[in-house]
Amino acid sequence: MKNVLTVESVSKTYGKYTALNNVSISVPKGSVFGLLGPNGAGKTSLIRIINQITLPDSGRILLNGENLQPHHVLDIGYLPEERGLYKRMKVGDQALYLAQLKGMSYADAKKKLKYWFEKFEITEWWHKKIEELSKGMAQKVQFIVTVMHAPKLLIFDEPFSGFDPINANLIKDEILKLRDEGATIIFSTHRMESVEELCDYIALIDKSNKILDGKLNDIKQEFKTNQFEVGLACENKEVLLQDINAQFLTQNSPTLSFNEDVRLLVNLKEEESSKDLIQFLNNKAQITHFTEIIPSANDIFLKAVANNE
Amino acid sequence: MNKLKLIIKREFLAKVKNKSFIVMTILSPLLMVGFIMLMLFLNEKNSEEIRTIAVVDESEILTSVFEDTEATKYINLTSLGLDEAKVKTEELYYGLVYIPKNDSLKNLSEGISFYSVDAPSINVISSIEHKLERKIRDLKIEQLQVDIAQIKAAETKVSIASENFTGEKSSKVGSILRMIAGGGFGYLIFMFIIIYGTSVMRSVIEEKNSRIIEVIISSVKPFQLMMGKILGNAFAGILQFVIWAISAGLLMYLVSLIFGVEATTSSTAMGQMNPEMMQQVQDSASNNDLQIAFLEMKNLPILTIFFSFIVYFLGGYLIYSSIYAAIGAAVDSETDTQQFMLPVMLPLVIAIYVGFSVIENPHGPIAVAFSLFPLTSPIVMLMRIPFGVPWWQILTSMFLLIITFIGIVWFAAKIYRIGILMYGKKPSYKELYKWLKY
């Protein structure tokens, strides 16, 4: 698959502080790419370098195979985490100004803005000043301003902050729609459930280094714990537990359903397969529940960062 | 280039549409003209009041001096006698001139008194003194049997016209004119730098506080944004000054149409002099000096002043406003700017003070030094230029100004670029120095 963005061994230091150390990532075309990491890991530094706000000390960035050049700012839409609009400027004027800075003509910008304002049902805000709007309303305007020039690459830094669940959903749908229309999305957030929902690929940056990247499913495979949750119905609970514990490493599961007597988390060893476990259990009791525990993005995040200590 | 134009346009409109800008622009000339009108009005009211002055002339030869004028009426109360006249005057009139009986012309000037309820105005007294002096002099001349016409013919007025060796005439009036021209332009630059430099700084802080800055600089270079801001504010400022100049001029013209005639007569403050004297005073002083002043005005190096005003205005404003922009970028709020403001204000204030000494000694070492030093030269050199400055000094000063301008803008742009993305830190000078190396 073609990569829209390639970051090759980028390093950046501020005085003695290293913000990025030899970081490389590839963002495939048409994907939603989650850029994850703890606070202060270097995500914003990387995003600013991609936006040509700062320059890397070493390494290079390719956009669609070309070295990053000033005109590429037109191909990128960026919603920074620290965002805002001119408080005393009218919504319409402001959006037109920002669109023109992104290289759109006045007429073109006006047409596009009309489309988006109608879509978000905010046409009546055109002549209002930002300071007259609520925070959530201003965020909508901000989102429109980010996407209106239909860039090939969209970078969202915590796009859902400041939105209520309804509007967050609206924005999420719009992001996915933009992806379907051919845009590539880089998505930086701390909200792991939205990573789970949206991202195809992720990269994890911690302490200025990239510690993990790839397809989300592959990473989950990699972080597979070989742990299974089983629910069993039987007559003699004590005997059953003794038998299982003799064979496998187990721990109690936090949940139990009505028709079960036993619920366990079973950790299999490398050489053991789930088939062995099922066979074993099937002989001892009635299996009411059997699932492989797949690590959540949250688990992966915590584990990877802990391993990097 | 196109983006820079967009930024300049936005900054210009943001400034011009601001309510305080509109209020200031409209109100200032009105206030100024209103003030002048008030002064004229008060002056007029003062001189409209008709004073009645009683005269008791026991010598009986000076009575003819007291002729009524527009502002003053005289009443001869000689027949009543001094004591009765005093009582009457206290009740009814402004004052009483008493001339005692005197047989000889020689002593006539002695013992003349003025009685009044309140302390009399100096103008009134001196005008009466003038009248009496002239009359007594004429009488004495007559007694000496000298022809008054001959005396008049012998009267001479000397006014020394000084001139420098290249043929430029100079005079006291000329010096004042130079002071006004140089001081005015210097002060204009000073005011402009402070007002619009601060406005650039505020605008940077506003962008930082509203957090729009990162959105903008993902589309344009920080340097473009800074320059756009500086130029946009400058255009707004120039517009404001032009509006002030034009509207003040128009209003003054209107005022002079309405108040014109009275204003000129009353403002001479010589209302009580007789026409002959007025003529003489004008002949001797005003006319000559006015002529010289006009000549001087023509002789001022107007082209040099104009050209250097533009250079120093641009240079000075750009240097200081980029420093202001850097300060705005370095801080989070206007209250944090204090520690950086002093070093910026200091050279400006020094320049104005040096400017005063320039007027006394335009070519002294202090004046020369500060007119070369680029942080003060825009003000000090402009104050010196009307007095004539050698070309090498102007060129050196401009050269230094341009070099400094480039250096400061480079320096400010670096601070600006880093500062606009820094939040929550109260920067020290050490911190700023570190930013230069990022």
Brief description of this entry?
The complex is a heterodimer of chains A (309) and B (438). With 309 residues, chain A is α/β, with parallel strands linked by helices.
Work out the number of β strands of chain A.
14
User: Regarding CATH, which class of the largest domain in chain A?
Assistant: Alpha Beta
- Helix % of chain A is 25-40%
Number of helices of chain B: 15
Order of helices and strands of chain B: HHEEHEEHHEEHHHHHHHHHH
Question: What is the number of domains of chain B?
Answer: 2
Order of helices and strands of chain A: EEEHEEEHHHEHEHEEHEHEEHEH
- Estimate the helix proportion of chain B, in percent: 55-70%
Q: In terms of quaternary structure, what is this?
A: heterodimer
Write the CATH architecture name of the largest domain in chain A. Answer: 3-Layer(aba) Sandwich
Determine Rg of chain B (CA atoms, Å): 32 Å
Strand content of chain A: 25-35%
Largest interface: A-B, 26 and 23 residues
How many structural domains are formed by the residues of chain A? Answer: 2
**Please, what is the average pLDDT of chain A?**
88
Write the layout of secondary structure elements.
The complex is a heterodimer of chains A (309) and B (438).
Chain A lengths: L2 E12 L2 E12 L3 E5 L6 H8 L7 E6 L2 E2 L8 E4 L11 H11 L4 H14 L15 H13 L5 E5 L7 H16 L3 E5 L3 H7 L2 E6 L2 E7 H7 L4 E7 L3 H11 L1 E4 L9 E6 L6 H11 L1 E7 L4 H11 L2
Parallel strand pairs in A: 3-8, 3-9, 6-7, 7-8
Antiparallel strand pairs in A: 1-2, 1-4, 4-5, 9-10, 11-13, 11-14, 12-13
Chain B lengths: L1 H15 L2 H30 L2 E7 L14 E5 L5 H11 L2 E5 L13 E4 L5 H22 L4 H7 L7 E2 L5 E2 L1 H38 L3 H5 L4 H46 L7 H25 L2 H29 L7 H23 L4 H8 L4 H8 L6 H29 L9 H8 L2
Parallel strand pairs in B: 1-2, 1-3
Antiparallel strand pairs in B: 3-4, 5-6
Helix pairs in contact in B: 1-8, 2-8, 6-8, 6-10, 6-11, 6-13, 8-10, 10-13, 10-14, 11-13, 12-13
GO molecular function (chain A): ATP binding; ATP hydrolysis activity
Pfam family, one (chain A): ABC_tran
Keywords (chain A): ATP-binding, Nodulation, Nucleotide-binding, Transport
